[in-house]
Amino acid sequence: MSEISKRTENNPAPVEKKRLNLKKVFTTSLWWMYLPALIIVCFFIVYPFLDGIRISFTNWNGFSQTYSYIGFDQYKRMLFDSNTWLIVKNTLLYGLGSTILQNVIGLMYALLLNQSIRMKSVVRTIIYLPVIISPLIMGYIWYFFFSYQGGALNDVLQVLGFDKVNALGNPSVNTWLIVFVNTYQFVGIAMIIYLAGLQSISKDYYEAAQIDGATPFQRFKNITLPLLIPSITINMVLNIIGGLKLFDVIISLTNGGPGNASQSMSTFMYSLYFDKQDAGYAATQGVLMAVIILILSLSALIYFRSKEVEA
Amino acid sequence: MDYISKSKKRSLTVLALVISLLHAVPFYILITTALKVRGDYSSKWVFPTEWDLGNFADAWNEANMGNALINSGIITFCAAILLIVFGSMAAYPLARRQTKLNKYVYFLFIAIMVIPPLTALVPLYQLVVDIGLMNTRTVAVLNNVASFMPLTIFLYAGFIRSTIPKELEEAARIDGASTIGIFFKIIFPLLKPITATVLIICCVYIWNDYQFAIFFLQSDEVKTLTVTISSFFGENANNLNMVASAAIIAMLPMVILFLFLQKFFIEGLASGSVKG
Predict the structure, then answer these.
(1) Going by fewer Cβ within 10 Å, which terminus of chain B is more open, N or C?
(2) Interatomic CA distance for residues A192 and B34, integer angstroms
């Protein structure tokens, strides 16, 4: 800013020079404008992330002043730890399972709400409402539903003459319940994004297809789906990142149990660090988690971007 | 939307209503649980004839919910203000000045969006202890600002590129306005729609944040709503009526806000997704 005024002072033809300076102004970086944001992000995300990689090569316990570098020992330990594979499997189930369910159900809801039906906005409000509630509290709410003693589900089963089930304590069932609760909570986001996508598709395509005698299924497959790819991309990437990071709802529904049966990488890391004082190993698990999220979200992004068509 | 017959319209309406009823079930269970008198072991499906609003009062007092509400409110408010001021300010040059440096910086912000903050938990915890911010609201504010900054910049930059004309700044420059003056007096007021979207997305997440809060806010006076609820549940697992009441108190502010500003919540998300 002061640059402009200084130069114009020395210039006899200010109008001509001002034009030139304007060009110069638009090629300055104005880096001071993003400096505060950059400092905060580097301090709280970039530096800890890089330091985490360093710690993954140590045997640090999380509190003592001394520790030693042990090379790839923590990585070897991770490879041969049976927990690792159980937890990676769970994390993938949470990530991919809820992504698929949220997208399929969210798209069905959007197609339904895109019809001219009554009370549309009420339905939309109810389905979207859970999105704004803390996942931790959502977990407790569903705990009231699934809990063995006095749970709402068991009341129904008993009235129907079945035995009570301990759904949250059964390791082969409770991971799916976590997927279910996560889907229930966030399907509203997918629904709204698909609804916006559907409404941006021009009616002309459908009219032309109808004249050509296309069946409803053909119209869906050849018009709706290809033109919805941008919405699918956003939903897939959002849901994969969200699902792989799952933490709160696991804490409130099962607390990772029984044993480690329903832990995700996030909750496992938390227990390694705070309960087992195994900071070096927790950092190693953190690196693995970052790699998995990076690979999956980037491949989803690249795959769906390549499928996008010009509307 | 093609023409559909009356009977088809009716059956689709019924289907939509059944779906929303199913979605409402957990809330119904939560409300009946919260209203029941302690010791009333009737099924959670049965709406209690005798209400015990004392559950709410007990939860409020015993869990120190007032304090938690204030903490969550302060943290959310401060983080949102910082995100909007620093985020919009950062997005402007990144969207408008395509210098080499700016391209790298923008790429860095976008890359960070993919890094889950929790993967850096171990060193972050140590860092917070070292700089003496453990158990302060400041650390919760800064952490939330850091983790939502990339998304905020991404949204603002997209909006500036697509809707703010370049000529605006040129004209202001010729009039001799300073960069900071141009930004806050001329550009920022035009960013209102995207500011509303950023505000809603970030406020919901920060208000509901548990991952950071549970690590860094463990002492009673700085506990947020989520941390309060989780420790309250741990202590009162045998008095679920009171826990359910506490859960309702904790989610009420956001639910009320949502019901009043629903248009912004849903439209903000929809327009953000179509443009992005």
Answers:
(1) N
(2) 31
